[in-house]
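Write out this protein's structure.
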Amino acid sequence: KATVSVLYCKVAGYRAKAKKKMSRSVGSPKGIHIVGAVGGVVLILGSSCLGVVYRAGLWNWLPVFGCLTGACALATATLHHMYLRIGDPDNLAFITMGAFSLVAPAQLTIAWTYVSPGALGFTLWCFLAFWTHMATLVKPRMHGSLFKVLISYPATVGCFAAIAGAPLLPAAWLPKSAAIAVCVVFPYCLGILGVIQSLWPVKRNWDVIKLQAGPGCEPLKTDAPIRVPHNTPSSTSLRIIQLTDMHLGPYMTEERLATICKKAVDYNPDLILLTGDYHTPESDHTEGCLVRALSPLRGFQHCYASLGNHDAESDRVENQVREDLHELGIKLLVDESTVVEVAGKMVSITGHGWPHRIAGVLRNTPAPPQDAVNIHLIHDPGSFQFLPSTEGAIAFAGHTHGGQVGLLSLGLKLTMVGAATGHPDHSYWGHGVNRLWAHRGQGFRSLSCNWVPRLGVPAEFSIIHLCWLKKRDGSEDGVRAHA
């Protein structure tokens, strides 16, 4: 419980509160168990790496493994100290570097012993690129194409290969060819495929998705949100384009995001909704970056935005996002609502900050007009369950990047996020008479930077054709009541 509480506060942006809870938790018996468990995992993983080196007959290369691991540990400690000095205590970066420090040297040691110089060269290149990229985050900024090709993309391949390859290391006990294929070639190929899919060009023709929502929907008698099929309504109330999780950085350049925004405007939808997470460390330290990237949205009449968890990592980032959106004339809604007339219909739009504040926001904001289209911007689809199930609303969220890694490209719905959490990860969900569209996003960010690319979960470029169903006669009123 202490760990979950700390992580929740961290994600929500309450760093001071998280630090206070951590100091209180670590000193308690539960905290000691948590620290002991984390230390045990690290010890087991490190011992496994040593065991792999020994059992695979690579004992003569133990000095190489030891030197690489020691150098990685020194780099991790040094960089994390420098991040703290610049006011960016990113624990995810520390965890990423720590895991990489244990697994990548074992992969390099295997490659050094078994593989040709060419394959070893690529593995070593990715290894050095990762640490070079981490070093540049001491003074982050947006980089040019040459840096991304030589450093950023190989760094992603190397880090993802280490993460995906960690549970495969025991295969080093297999014969030479099988060990190389499983421990080195397979995870690095996955990393390369992920980078390619993450850089895939913006779709020329965006998908049209037809949805039904509103208090007239069939109530779902479930305790938690469930995935529901897309409907094919014969009429359309509103045309909506959602932009979310853009994450300006190595994989989402200013030019790429500007192209996406221009394409969205060219479709002339009734609403453009932005549901947060605009930056990576590189972009939030580059002045004017977001304004230039979102400039095609300037002057669009009905464009509304909310914040994501990465937009509240510090007061500096949040204030910068607020100023940039204000400069573009985009209405930012954080724990507040607005009612506008769009395409001849009254539309209520409520933007939410953090999940635990949703109930309070609904109590303190006016109920939407009768028969108005009721829209909520919540960023994290896990927050959907906190909307009263009789609200009769449609929520738009992102955050999960569609599950990030999964089998959607093969026509299956399974994703890493969905399997691990059970929370909405992509597509359409329902809870009571509420509905949720969990958008896959246009960009991605993971483990403090871009270390886990999209793999089997493509970015989403879609236009929502929303059919709003009014309250049916004799059914429960879908508009919330106020005390």
